[in-house]
Amino acid sequence: MAATETTGKVAPEPIKAEPPSVTKYFALVEVVLRFLLFASALVAVLVLVTSKQTKRLQFPPFPLVITMTAKFNQSPAFIYLVAALSVTGFYAVISTLLSFYSLLKPGYFTKALSHFVVLDVLLLGILASATGAAGGVAYIGLKGDSQVGWMKVFNIYGKFCRHVGASIAISLFGSIVLVLLVLLSVYSLSKKIPK
Amino acid sequence: MAATETTGKVAPEPIKAEPPSVTKYFALVEVVLRFLLFASALVAVLVLVTSKQTKRLQFPPFPLVITMTAKFNQSPAFIYLVAALSVTGFYAVISTLLSFYSLLKPGYFTKALSHFVVLDVLLLGILASATGAAGGVAYIGLKGDSQVGWMKVFNIYGKFCRHVGASIAISLFGSIVLVLLVLLSVYSLSKKIPK
After folding, report:
1. Which of A81, B69, B156, B175 is deepest in the core (most CB within 10 A)?
2. Do B117 and A175 touch (CB under 8 A)?
3. How far apart are CA A89 and CA A86, in angstroms?
4. Which residue of A has its CA nearest to B192?
5. Closest CA to A156 of A27, A79, A40, A58
6. What is the pLDDT of residue B194?
7. What is the spatial distance between Cα B61 and Cα B44, in angstroms, rounded to a whole number?
8. How many domains does chain A have?
9. Range of A93's domain?
10. Which of A43-52, B29-38, B98-107 bottoms out in mean pLDDT, i.e. has the lowest?
């Protein structure tokens, strides 16, 4: 902005014209990443919430039929993951809109960026730990733990297993997007420091 | 440094003397935080590795005695936590020494800082997910899951339970220290941008 105003001098430092386009490029990448974060959080929540499966178990010699239901809210780890993904998705909507707005009006970019990176780091910690917790519980469900007598249950619930696995994978993708967002913020901050 | 060399002029901008002391203060806080990270990772690994407990279970009417052992390497989640804590501790040793060195010679601070923040963010993701995974598994061990028939086992192993719980709590502290380190890096970078 300041470089374009000084038109009186001869050849007013052509290298100064680069920073605005670099900032614009960073802002565009940030909008795309934030939208990806929103999309992944939304898809992961929907996949996990719709994972309910009811199974009728019948043991052939007996006429007894047991109806068993697997749902995400039976395990605290999956509830934690849904909560973390909901918060991430809600934050991602707001931050996508604000960073898109600051892409159109570049003056607001620095202010928005410096506040978002704090929330990005906090949400990265929350989402990564929620993904880890759900992954740890899902691994026991998949493989069981013979040492303490926890039997595997995912061979009974096929649909539930697929939904939980897909949701954890998408949450992992969301965590990686958050890492990239923090690194982008740090990189774009370090670009603004004069050499 | 540059402000102290210009002693020839009358009152050479006293406000310019602040930035070096602020940088020095940031560097000191960073060394303290990195040392805390190293200490917490070391303590958490030691507490988790020494959690082995052997229990002799005897059922009174029968003469049968069953020897059961609880150890961290029976669960993949605890192995992941030990691995993540070891990597974090190893990285914390190196980064503590380097940031202490750059505290003595401030010229190296910017270069070291800009490289460390990338690793800080990555390790935050890894350590938070490992803490979450171990916490999820430990919660099942503590409370059980009656829906799928996983019984609680931490009432049998008292010492193992205490060690695992303490290790997870210290890992959580380490994750918070990593969040603070990333925020400190971002804050100290944003301080260097000219207004």
Report:
1. A81
2. no
3. 5
4. A193
5. A58
6. 78
7. 41
8. 1
9. 19-191
10. B98-107
ipTM rounded to 2 decimals: 0.81
Q: Please report whether residue B9 resides in a domain.
A: no
Q: What is the 3-state secondary structure (H, E, C) of chain B?
A: CHHHHCCCCCCCCHHHHHHHHHHHHHHHHHHHHHHHHHHHHHHHHHHHHCCCEEEEEECCCCCCEEEEEECHHHCHHHHHHHHHHHHHHHHHHHHHHHHHHHHHCHHHHHHHHHHHHHHHHHHHHHHHHHHHHHHHHHHHHHHCECCCCECCCCCCCHHHHHHHHHHHHHHHHHHHHHHHHHHHHHHHHHHCCCC
C-beta atoms of A133 and B128 within 8 A: no
Rounded to the nearest angstrom, the minimum Cα separation between B11 and chain A is 25
Whole-number Cα distances in Å, B33 to B6, B86, B134, B170: 34, 17, 24, 14
User: Which amino acid type is present at position A186?
Assistant: V
The candidate with the shortest Cα–Cα distance to B127, out of B26, B27, B49, B40, is: B40
Answer yes or no: do A136 and B141 touch at CB < 8 A: no
Local confidence band at B121 (pLDDT 50, 70, 90 cut-offs): very high
Distance CA B185, CA B88 (A): 18
Is A175 in contact with B145 (Cβ distance < 8 A)? no
**B183/chain A closest Cα distance in angstroms:** 7
SS3 A56: strand
**A88, amino acid identity:** T
**Contacts with B130 from chain A: Cβ below 8 Å:** 132
Nearest CA in chain A to B70: A147
Residue A35 belongs to some domain of the structure: yes
Global pTM?
0.82
Residue A9 is assigned to a structural domain of this protein: no
Residues B108 and A161: their CA atoms lie apart, in Å, by: 51
C-alpha–C-alpha distance, residues B125 and A129, integer Å: 8
User: A164 CB contacts (<8 Å, ≥6 apart)?
Assistant: A48, A51, A72, A78, A134, A138, A141
Residue A95 within a domain: yes
